[in-house]
Structure formats: C-alpha cells, structure tokens
Design brief:
Layout lengths: L1 E5 L6 H10 L8 E5 L3 H15 L7 E5 L2 H5 L4 E4 L5 H14 L9 H25 L4 E4 L4 H12 L3 E3 L3 H12 L7 E8 L2 E9 L2 E2 L1 H5 L2 H6 L1 H6 L1 H7 L2 E2 L4 H4 L1 H10 L4 H14 L3 H13 L3 H7 L14 H14 L3 E8 L12 E9 L2 E4 L7 H23 L2 H10 L6 H14 L10
Parallel strand pairs: 1-2, 1-4, 2-3, 4-5, 5-6
Antiparallel strand pairs: 7-8, 8-9, 8-10, 11-12, 12-13
Helix pairs in contact: 1-2, 1-17, 4-5, 4-14, 4-20, 5-6, 5-18, 13-16, 14-15, 18-19, 19-20
Length: 442
C-alpha cells in the first residue's frame, strides 16, 4: 500500500512514519512518498526517517519529491499536512491580531481566519489534482484549520476526504483515566466542530460515568481541563470542553497572557525548529518534540494557573495513531470507531448535510460514517453555528476573491468585537501575506 504525505518536510512527519514502522500486519504501508515545496526540509526529515528505519526489517521505503503530480500518482492514501506560509506566516498571523487586541491563534479567531484564507485555495487545488491523478485514493486531512480545510476539499472529493485531529483523542483518554477506565474500552460522546467540541459523556460497559467525574471535585481537578477551565465551570456546563474552547470562555485573560509573553507560540516553534532543520538527527528531533509538547498551550495554562502539563499527557499516540487506525479500517475493512471530521449528513439538525463536523464515526472499507448524537444544548449550538458561518465566509472569500466576504468572516467571528477591527485585520493580513493581497481590493 502506498502513502503520500503532503507537507512531507513537516516536523511531525516522523511521528507518522514511526507508527507505520510499528504496523507489521498484512496490507500495511510499504511505500511512503514525501512531498514538499522545500527541498531542504524534505532532506532533513528523510534523514530522521532513515535513522528510525535502521534495523527495522521491511521498513516502508521512502521517496522524496517536490513535484506534486509525481507524488500523487499511484497513491492509495494521501495524508495532507501542509502549512501555507510556513511558520513565518503563523507568526505574522499572531502579530497582526495581537496588535488589534484580539486572538491570533493559528486555528481560532482572527489567526485561524487568516490561515484559512491562504490555505483553502491551495488545498482545493490539491484536491483537484488528487481527483485527476489518484481518484481512488483516500485523503486524510490534518492541515489546519482542519475542519474548514476538510470541508473545502470535500467540495471536490466528497466523502473520500476525512479530517483528523488529536485533541478529542487526548481529551477522551484523560477523562477515562480520571475515571479509572481503560481508554481503549470506552465510548466517548463527543460532538462539535474541529477545535470547538464538547465531551458530553463517557460510557463504560454501557454506563455513562461522566456524572461521577463531575461530582468528584478532587478527580475533576486532577484533569488538565479541570485545571484549565476550573471545576466550577465544568460542572456548570455538565460537559468537558475541548481545550481550544479556553480561547472562547477565557478570551480576555488569554489575550492578555499572549500579549505579556516574551514571544508568541508561532515565534517559539519557528525558532525552536530552526535548530533542528539546521542539523537534523533523530536525537535532536526527539528532544525538540519533547520541548514542544511540554510547552503546548503554555500561555493558556499561565492565564488559568493550570501549571505544567502532566507527564502522562506528553506521551505519543496522537494524530499519527488516529491516521493509522483510519487507514487500517478503510484498507482492511476493519471496523473501528474514531472521532473524525466528516460531512454532517443528518447528524446535527442545526447544520446542513455538507457541513463538516467532528463526531464519533464508524469506519469501514466504505469510509467514515457519522454516528447519531443527541442535539447540542443552546449555548453550544450558538457557537457552532456562528463559527460554521464564519468558515463558509472564508471559503466564499477564498474562492471568489471577495473583500466583502473576507470582512464578514472576521466581523462575524465571536472573538472579533468590531467591524472596524475586522477591516483593519484584513488590511493587516493582506499587507503581510502576498497570497491574499487581492482581497484588499476596494
């Protein structure tokens, strides 16, 4: 089986390859093609993969290319993890937003909108090439903003593109452990959009154990989300929010923490990874990854007094294992249940059939099928429908070049508090991102 990784020079590619090395079953991936526009980054990652494969019998072969069409031909699966604009673009997204006093995080708020505006046209173009050159391939999208990009690609590829994220997996694992349950033997009731979802129940042997956790202040406080959001707020919600909802529920505190920080997350990651790419090795990659994971959402934890991440939350087993489980289920028709980003169909009545949502799905050889879920409560419905409307405006602006649609995308987002600010944000982003400069037409 052949896997193509778009964004093959990306820092987290060795996680995917490591998961492939652990898969020894029949029908496994035997060939990996890395595609990236940056040849130097490709060579750096290939160096690490070669070290990972040393001494592993029948390790998947690795090829590298900067030619997209060459990378796609013959692919059975395409893993998309591109970063349009690179880490410099991410740092600029943060800087422009914070100058206006609003959040610039890469997937949430103004930063996520800017990232989406420059990523959607590229992702849609890639989807067209996949449809032309590898029409039977399944596409696994991790490119952020993952839900938005998956929906844009699905307009070309339909249900053959499936979005993944490791946030719901980590959340479910933490809640299960807090309840003393095996994470592999629970059913997680989770629903929302990517980076905007809630864990509303955790069934162990058919019984929902989440109320027991919510009623136990000590156990709830031991959970990372308990420290991040506060146990009183979790009990008030009657659910455990995805960590990214901290940007919504504690927006003012988070923006202040970001503005006080010595450097933004994007600048930190850019500077940190520069050292690895200058002198790539497996050992250096591992140490860089460990530091990156330990400092994840550090400003949010500082704003809430949550402290350092627990050691068990630093272990591997995130998106790369979700991707592998998804590929196994589709390629081998091994039925699995995974939380994925897929088209809504009739799952949430407040959204149309083509809206991409994040919910538990049954996966088999025919793809991912969203499971039935209970309706969202009013407060969650409001956020989900508002952010989905913003995503649709981003897609309209990206496809049409409409400045009006781009302004609407910023202005309608719950974390942007003024149309005037929305216009200034667009002006700021078009000034620093050549790929969206056309949106500044009057």
């Amino acid at each position: 089986m052949r896997l193509t990784i778009l964004g093959g020079g990306g820092f987290r590619v060795p996680l995917v390859y490591g998961a492939l090395l652990d898969d020894r079953d029949e029908g496994r991936v035997t060939r990996v093609t890395l595609h990236d526009l940056d040849g130097a980054r490709l060579r750096a990652v290939a160096t690490v993969l070669a070290e990972q494969a040393a001494g592993v019998p029948d390790a998947p072969g690795v090829a590298v290319t900067t030619d997209l069409d060459e990378a796609l031909r013959g692919a059975d699966f395409v893993f998309s993890a591109i970063r349009v604009g690179g880490l410099e673009g991410r740092a600029a997204d943060e800087r422009v937003a914070l100058a206006e006093g609003v959040l610039g995080q890469e997937t949430v708020g103004a930063g996520g909108i800017a990232y989406g505006l420059r990523t959607v046209p590229v992702a849609t173009g890639i989807a067209r090439r996949i449809a032309a050159l590898a029409p039977d391939a399944w596409v696994i999208n991790f490119t952020n903003p993952a839900g938005l990009v998956t929906e844009a690609m699905s307009r070309v590829l339909g249900d053959r593109v499936i979005g993944i994220c490791d946030s719901p997996v980590g959340l479910g694992r933490r809640v299960a452990r807090a309840l003393g349950a095996d994470p592999a033997r629970v059913w997680t009731d989770y629903v929302g959009l990517n980076h905007l979802g809630w864990l509303r129940g955790l069934r162990v042997a058919g019984r929902d154990e989440l109320p027991r956790l919510l009623a136990d202040p000590e156990a709830l406080g031991s959970l990372e989300e308990g420290r991040l959001f506060g146990t009183d707020w979790l009990r008030s919600l009657g659910a455990i929010p995805n960590e990214y909802l901290h940007y919504y529920y504690f927006n003012r505190e988070t923006v202040q923490a970001y503005r006080r920080a010595e450097r933004t997350r994007g600048v930190f990651v850019r500077d940190q990874q520069a050292g690895f790419y200058a002198e790539p090795s497996l050992k250096r990659w591992e140490s860089t990854l460990a530091e990156r994971e330990a400092t994840y959402m550090a400003d949010n934890r500082a704003a809430s007094g949550a402290g350092r991440r627990a050691d068990e939350d630093l272990e591997s087993g995130g998106y790369e294992k979700v991707a592998l489980a998804l590929m196994r289920a589709v390629a081998r028709d091994e039925r699995a249940t995974l939380i994925l980003n897929v088209r809504n169909r009739t799952t949430l009545s407040v959204l149309d059939a083509d809206a991409v949502i994040e919910v538990p799905c049954l996966v088999d050889a025919n793809g991912a099928h969203p499971c039935a879920v209970a309706p969202l409560p009013g407060h969650a419905t409001g956020l989900v429908t508002a952010v989905k409307a913003v995503e649709r405006e981003v897609m309209t602006a990206a496809e049409s070049g409409s400045r009006a649609a781009a302004v609407r995308a910023f202005a309608l987002h719950p974390l942007v508090d003024s149309v005037t600010v929305a216009r200034r944000l667009l002006d700021g982003y078009t000034a620093v991102h050549p790929g969206i400069a056309h949106l500044n037409r009057k």
